[in-house]
Design brief:
The structure holds 2 protein chains of 2 kinds. Chain A is mainly alpha-helical. Chain A contains 16 helices and 7 strands. Chain A starts with a helix and ends with a helix. Classes of the chains: A mainly alpha, B alpha+beta.
Chain lengths: 341, 264
């Protein structure tokens, strides 16, 4: 009896010590992991630099696809306007432009922001443009509002070019502007529309100008594009798309409900920061928020697909929002398994 | 405390107010500039010739979404969207009759293509459209110089209604002039006359109604026209009731007293 008592009394402090040791172990592990995370990040960057040429080219896939999409939309409009592209006799393929168009003579499409402005001037829109706006709104509510920016908008080609050149030349910023500014410009556009009775942004929009003039005849719209290029290149990085454009702001708000998202796997991420380096809206890749949410939550993400192929660990991937939670739980389980092994 | 000023004042509120004032100043100047740009851009709108069914100027400026579907669907390809930096408001459809006149399609495809209603679907008959008004420069019109030109009259899709030919006999030794007259109640402003005019610079041209049409005002009463409404001012005094049969016959004829009465 006495021995058993003894063992019990001896076991208690032993358990305590074990627990202490365990805690210490956790602490050491976390310290180790934060140390090794730094090393992992370096390894990740190295991995990125040691990619084969094939892998490099493959990582450009979304950029190439986006250019195909952007120029493709332009071509559809241009071909219909100038070469009379038709799907059947007397059924034009895609008439109009990005403000409002009609696909195969049947499906109306309307820029919801333009429609909103015209509505605010006090003009009762015709049914056709309301349906068109609802269709476009529905599409972007599903796939992310700023998908327009990265995959359709022709100005994006110019600003991407400016950002690329700016990066090559290592141009330092002159000043900073808050990225919130675009929301104020959005509100201002709507207010001025109400006051003047003219669609405030549509009348000055460089997007509209450039797009219209490519399709319907040249004017000075290209000077607007040049101004945006120089502004983005020499004055403010991602200046137009990331700070000023009210259409982008409008689509950011719409994009909050998007189903197509970039999933974040916190287990494999080494915090190398390569994703934020290539992202035109790096604030959406806030790691703390990514950890919490498990995906890129902000509507300002344009689903451009720069971060997903660049990530050396494959921690960022396009995913369907309802599946993201499940995928993250799976990834966590696998990570736990690996750690215990 | 860092937000305590030298005299112990709380500067946080002052900073906040200054920030607010700065924000308001940026918003105000930016808004004024933006508004100025818009007004400046819209200022040229009265000079534009719009496609058939276009709403009145201000409403059209507000409603047009600048999509160019009317341009795509115009069979003779006369409609253009104004590029930026041009003389007309940006991005909206217009046509230049001298180079491309409206051919007045009976089914009005441009209007049907309009998604917003800036080209109003209320227009059912192309002959009811009022895109502009033909105006003749009588100093340079060949017909007014005595030549038998009359081309504008002959090409007019509403010949006889929109442009009529009026014979003007002259002295014995000169032949009569046949001069074209435009009637605003029928002229659609299609511009076929302007396109066909043989003078070096067209002597008949299409202009927006607002720039050429006068208005006589409500106070003129054209009493000699049959369709002039007779108002109280012009109503003849009601005739006196016919004298009864047994009434005494006046000694003098009616009117005689009137002439000899009063201060006349």
């Amino acid at each position: 009896m006495s021995t058993s008592e003894n063992t019990v009394s001896r076991r208690a402090p032993l358990e305590g010590a074990k627990q202490d040791l365990g805690r210490l172990g956790v602490f050491v592990e976390s310290a180790q992991s934060s140390l090794s995370k730094g090393a992992d990040a370096l390894a990740s960057v190295e991995k990125l630099h040691n990619r084969t040429l094939g892998a490099r080219v493959w990582s450009w896939r979304y950029i190439i696809l986006r250019r195909v999409s952007q120029f493709g939309f332009l071509l559809l409009f241009f071909g219909t306007a100038h070469w009379g592209w038709q799907v059947a006799k007397k059924v034009p393929l895609l008439t109009g432009n990005l403000s409002a168009s009609k696909f195969i003579g049947l499906i109306p499409l309307t820029d919801p922001f333009a429609a909103l402005q015209i509505f605010l001037t006090g003009h009762a829109l015709q049914q056709q443009s309301l349906i068109g706006a609802a269709i476009v709104l529905g599409i972007y509510l599903l796939i992310g509002g700023r998908v327009f920016c990265a995959w359709v908008c022709p100005v994006n080609v110019v600003t991407d070019g400016a950002a690329w050149l700016r990066n090559k030349l290592g141009i330092q910023p002159i000043f900073h502007l808050p990225r919130m500014l675009r929301y104020f410009i959005l509100v201002a556009a709507l207010l001025i529309t109400v006051i003047t009775g003219l669609a405030a942004f549509e009348w000055v929009s460089p997007i509209g100008m450039a797009h219209r003039e490519i399709i319907f005849g040249l004017g000075l719209g290209f000077t607007a594009l040049l101004a945006i290029f120089l502004f983005d290149l020499l004055i403010l990085k991602n200046g137009w798309c990331g700070h000023l454009c009210p259409l982008g702001a409008f689509y950011s708000l719409i994009g909050k409900t998007a189903m197509l998202r970039v999933r974040f796997d916190k287990n494999s991420c080494t915090r190398c920061g390569e994703c934020a380096r290539v992202c035109p809206e790096p604030q959406v890749l806030n790691l703390k928020k990514l950890d919490e949410r498990g995906y890129v939550f902000s509507g300002e993400c344009s689903n451009c697909g720069r971060c997903t192929p660049i990530c050396p660990e494959g921690s960022l991937k396009f995913d369907f929002k309802p599946l993201i939670r499940g995928h993250n739980v799976q990834a966590d389980a696998i990570a736990v398994q690996r750690r215990t092994r | 405390m860092s937000d305590q000023g030298p005299s112990g004042l709380n500067t946080a509120r002052r900073d906040f107010l200054v920030k607010m004032a700065q924000g308001a100043a940026i918003a105000g100047t930016g808004g004024l500039l933006w508004g100025y740009l818009l007004r400046n851009e819209a200022r040229a709108a009265p000079y534009a010739l719009r496609p058939p069914g276009a709403l009145a100027e201000d409403d059209f400026n507000a409603a047009c979404i600048k999509c160019g579907q009317c341009v795509n669907d115009c069979p003779p390809h006369i409609l253009k969207l104004q590029p930026s930096g041009g003389t007309l408001p940006i991005g909206m459809p217009f046509y230049t009759p001298r180079t491309g006149a409206c051919i007045m399609c009976p089914d009005i495809p441009c209007m049907k293509a309009c998604p917003t209603g800036a080209l109003s679907p209320k227009l059912k008959n192309i002959n009811d459209s009022r895109m502009g008004l033909a105006v003749i420069d009588i100093e340079n019109c060949l017909s007014y110089k005595g030549l038998r030109c009359e081309i504008c009259h002959r090409v007019c899709p509403l010949k006889g209604k929109a442009i009529s030919l009026e014979p003007h006999p002259r002295q014995i030794s000169k032949h009569a002039m046949f001069i074209p007259l435009v009637h605003s109640d029928a002229c659609t402003g299609c511009g076929i006359c302007e396109k066909a005019c043989p003078t070096e610079v067209a002597a008949i041209r299409i202009l927006p109604h607002k720039l050429v049409q006068g208005k006589i005002g409500e106070h003129y009463r054209l009493g000699w026209t049959f369709d002039t409404e007779i108002t109280q001012d012009f109503k003849p005094v009601e005739a006196a009731p016919a004298p009864a049969a047994d009434a005494p016959v006046p000694k003098t004829a009616p009117g005689m007293d009137y002439l000899n009465e009063g201060g006349l």
